[in-house]
Amino acid sequence: MVVGLLNANPIVYKKKERRARNVPTVIDEYAVEPIDEQEIFDYIRDIKDPEHPYSLEELKVVTEDSIEANDKQSYVRVTFTPTIEHCSMATLIGLCLRVKLMRSLPSRYKVDIRVAPGRHATEAEVNKQLNDKERVAAALENPNLLELVDSCLEPTYA
Amino acid sequence: MEKPNSWIAHVEAFVDSARATNQQAASVDAIAVLVHKDLLTLEGLVIEMEQYLTTSDHVIRARGILLLAEVLSHLLEKPLDSRTVSSLVEFFTSKLEDWQALHGALIGCLALLKRTKKFGMVESNDAKSLAESFLRNVQVQSLAVRDRKLCFEVIQRLLDVYPQAVVELGDDLVYGICEAIDEEKDPRCLMLTFSLVGTLGRLFPDPSGPLGNFSSDVFDILSRYFPIYFTHPKGDGLDITRDDLSKALMDAFSSSPLFEPFVIPLLLEKLSSSLPSAKLDSLKYLNSCVPHYGADKVVKHSQVIWSNLKDVIFNLSPHRSSLSTYGSDGDMDSEVNQIANEALNCLQTAISHLNFPDQDSFLCLIIDDEDIGTRFWSVTSMKNYSGASTEIQCQLSALGSILSIASKVSVYCCTNVFQKFFSCLMDILGVSGKHASKLCVTDHNTCSDGLNFGALYLSMELLTSCRELTLSSKEFAPEVISEPRSWFYVLKNISRELCDALGSILETPESAEHVYCAVKGLQVLATFPEIYSPVSEATYEDILVMLMSIITRRNKETYLWELSLKALVQIGLWIENAHDSAKAISYNKLVIQRIVSMLQPNDSTISLSLKLVAISEISSIDLYLLTIVQAFEEAIVSNLRACFEGNLKSSGVLVPLLQCYSNQVLPRCHTCGNFNDIAVQVAVSIWNQIEYVAVFRSAILMKDVLDQVMMTMKHLVAGCTEENQFLILQKACSSLPKTFLIAESLPCALSQLEGFQCIQDTTLMSCRDEWVFSLFGSVVIALRPQTPLVNVKILLNLFVVLLLKGNMPAAQALASMVNKWPADVNKSEVSYSLDQAIEEILKSCLWTSESSSNFIDRDSCFQKYVVLGLAWIGKGLLMRGHEKLKEIAMLLLKCLVAGKNVDITPFQQHENGSKDVGQDASSPLATFAADAFHVLLSDSEDCLNKKFHATIRPLYKQRFFSSMLPILLSSIKESDPSSKKVVLYRAFGHVISDTPLAAVVGEAKKIVPTLADALAMLSLDILNKDMIYSLLLVVSGILMDDNGKAIVLENVHTIISLLIKLISYPHLMIVRETAIQCLVAISVLPYARIYPYRPQVFRAVSTALDDRKRVVRQEAVRCRQAWASIA
């Protein structure tokens, strides 16, 4: 069997400008800044694609619009779009997203990771796998997999 | 003559290739010195070395020849007779055949060729035979780099010094050089080969000569390098950049018109390349080749050159998308911009060199180009800049640049461009000139439906380049002015209407771009040189009136307003530079007088802040600075008077007025030269106002006004020379209330003081007195050290009394006085020394009279004043490095720990007289004393700084830090663990955070434990939050230092638990953020020591993940990762 790239030639999009938040001139020390979509997006935009040296943002796997966050109800849903329909990397990308958010959000949060509807051959299976606590935990027990995930997450800590 | 055996050892050392290199170099030096001192003749050397120079062992022979060559290159300044030189040349020339010894032979040839006439140089025929031998025997390209480089240097030297001799070699020479430089790749050698070709070009200008025969070969060799592709990294030690190589190649290309048939087509071909660097280089080369080749050679290419340039300019013109970059140059460094600029340069060169008055000139190509015509119509149909497509916008700016370049070149070109385009533009703009253009179609829209921006823009570009043309060419032929066809005549006839049209555009501007162009146009029209001015005197005045009316009426339209102001300033600066007296008069009348009158109180045209902006901008014209300064003075004085009389509105005016005056206008007076007169006058008139008003009507103090007046006074005084400062000081003294000056000795002043003992506030001192004393203090603060003080004793007393009443400027003035106290008492008029003065001050501060109660008993307000005053005086002493500081520091320390049974007087005899007072541990006194350390160590804007001529010893903070640290540390240790510690920690905190970090880090070992304790204790009180932050910065500074890390490691437990506590510090976000950053820094410390704390840190950081501030959360994510990855 010839081992090749699943998607040898993905379309690379331009990175969006980092949006500067308009900082109020008089800083209220005690005002609350809730966790919002932009903040979540800032956490995950730089995750590297497992296959290519591009970030998920550049491949448009995740966009700011595909994130839904509610700070009051401690809920985040990330919908990601694999670059091709039968991408076997979809679970790995989903795992990276989950691990990154697990490490970045307070423990009160419930994180929901989904493949965009109709964008993957085995959509239901992937969704189930990604949102199964036991299976995620088991996956992270696997040192090879963990190493792979960590290498994808590395650019996000720069 | 030295004995042979004394130096023959050197020869042996050199020839023996097993010896170390430096040893060999040393022996060359030694022999060269011997020869230089005439202890050894060259002849003798050669004779002794005979066996080495002629042996059949080629290694030894090569070394021998090299030795002789090296010695020769050391002797460039040693006179040698022609026979010696000649025989040496002959020797080395013959050795060029000997390929095994070639390196030495080349060095020898080069050394001989480098000799100058003064010390005996190589004869011309010897040089010729050398060249012949070289061409016959040396295969340059088969040699190593260093030898190739030598070869090229030899040839270069031959060409430079013996052109006559080598020219005779003709074809052989050129062919030989071609062979030598073919396929060269080393950048160092390339630099030489390029310059060789350049020299060849100069030596053989004849088209039928040798270079003519070989020009296609030479070009063939050189053209491979174009465009230069050079990827060496920067630090390769060669010190050659791509630009150097490119420049050298350009010089080679443009060295001879013989290359023209090859070079120009190549350049034009590469110009259409898609590689930006190739484009840029082609343009640069073209720009340099055109003038070198001469018009008659290039003219046949002009059609092609123009069409290529046109393509580049129209396709690569910088696109100005928004108003913010409009009119500015944008980013000049981008490659596209560079190319466009270079293309325009090239165009300018082409127009000016390919310029034949009759026909066929390059200019005709441009203005008769149909393409330009169509583009002209398409851009002039553009109504609005921002509404048009990007493409049209680019075209407009490209066309603008082409026309402006074309008209800038010469009067002839300008006239032609004007005839073709300008009148037409005027028609489109609806300006009815007397000339109708044949090109203009009648049905083209005039200003009926909105104004045409394209036409406006192009007109402005043309006007600007006309002006530049008048500036660049000093004198015109008279017919330019009189000839009815010339541009000047056209412009002059139409200028009146044009001004009116621009004015009406500004009346109802359609867009920001319109405003920009119209204002620019007016500015350009008003800044032509006097004799070539197309506008009449009346029109000029109209322009000024127009712009001024915008300033006074249209302040709501910010962009228009700012542009008009800038234009006015530019017009003013132009008048100043051009010394145009007629215009200066109208400018003064219409602009300056009007602007100045805006400062009068009854003027209500625009808001004060805008007025001040306008005036401070205009004051950058030195010519009118004096007028403006006077207007300021009047305004300040009248407002001050009104203030004193209780007019609250004036106080609102006065503060910004003074700010503008002291920050913007006064600094300009420094450059203008007459600062002293102005300053003295203003200062004296401020004092006059105070004298004049005996009682202030307004009951309130007007603190902000007072502060600002004080600041202005300080600036005024500080800028003056000693004599003028003395004048101001005298004036100030005479304005003081007489009662204070009568008090001649200390007891007398003190007796007055008795009355004030229980004063809590300043009500007893009248508002006016407060002003007088504060201002007087300001004058003293800003004095130079050399300025003589009169009645020093009285002044001291006065300030002490004021200090005890809580007058801050007095304390600062006192500090200033002791800081600048003359070091040598005998030489100065001051009757007593600094030590005495300090004693006096201390005595009167702390010990109001012999019988009175102890200082600690006094009410806290009084204590505060005294401690603060002491702190300032201490700062003055500290900065000059006076030892009396110790006394004051000790006093402050005593205040810190003041509790039971503490006597803080400096005098032994009073110690047993102190009373037992039940003092609260964290008494206000102790807190004041702690804060006094902040005053001691921080930099102040108000006094004791460079601006106000303070004596500043280098490293004074560090000195204080290292002397105070042990004392503070020990007293912290000694104090019982009560709340008393808090004030000590506070003082400690001030000292640590105000000292430069480097000094603190050096003492990290001592301070880290205490620092941790201090942070822990201070974080309990919200009032300390700023200090917590600055201390945390010290911690992070220590963590960044290598030594500091080791010390943190020793206390890692305390530090980590402290930082974890601070992660949840609720009062200041930056404290939390910095604490987390410190934890990140700790995570790189040795694994074994920090691993036990990992769970703790994780717990703390995961709560920080839910922090209410985003920045903290993001830091927490980073910190979590850092600690997670240590496992």
Largest sheet of chain B: none
Biggest interface between protein chains, with counts per chain? A-B, 18 and 18 residues
Extended strand count of chain A: 3
Topology as H/E string of chain A? HEEHEHHH
Task: Report the span from N to C terminus of chain A.
Answer: 37 Å
**What Rg of chain A do the Cα atoms give?**
16 Å
Query: What is the structural class of chain B?
Result: mainly alpha
Number of helices of chain B: 56
Low-pLDDT runs of 5+ residues of chain B are: 321-330, 434-449, 742-763, 848-853, 900-921
Q: How many beta-strand segments of chain B?
A: 0
Oligomer: heterodimer
Q: Please compute the radius of gyration of chain B using only Cα atoms.
A: 42 Å
Helical amount among residues of chain B, as a percent range?
A: 55-70%
Question: Mean of residue pLDDT of chain B?
Answer: 81
Helix segment tally of chain A:
5
Could you tell me the strand content of chain A as a percent range? 5-15%
Question: In words, what does this structure look like?
Answer:
- The complex is a heterodimer of chains A (158) and B (1127).
- Chain A has helices spanning 37-44, 90-104, 123-130, 133-141, 143-153, and strands spanning 67-70, 75-80, 110-115.
- With 158 residues, chain A is an alpha+beta fold.
- In chain A, strand 1 and strand 2 (75-80) form a beta hairpin.
- The relative contact order of chain A is 0.16.
- By secondary structure, chain B is mainly alpha-helical.
- Mean pLDDT of chain B is 81; it is low at 321-330, 434-449, 742-763, 848-853 and 900-921.
- Chain A binds chain B through residues 21, 27, 29-33, 35, 39, 42-43, 103-108, 157, and chain B through 1066-1069, 1102-1103, 1105-1106, 1108-1110, 1113-1114, 1117-1118, 1120-1121, 1124.
Produce a short descriptive summary.
The complex is a heterodimer of chains A (about 160) and B (about 1150). Chain A has about 160 residues and is of the alpha+beta class.
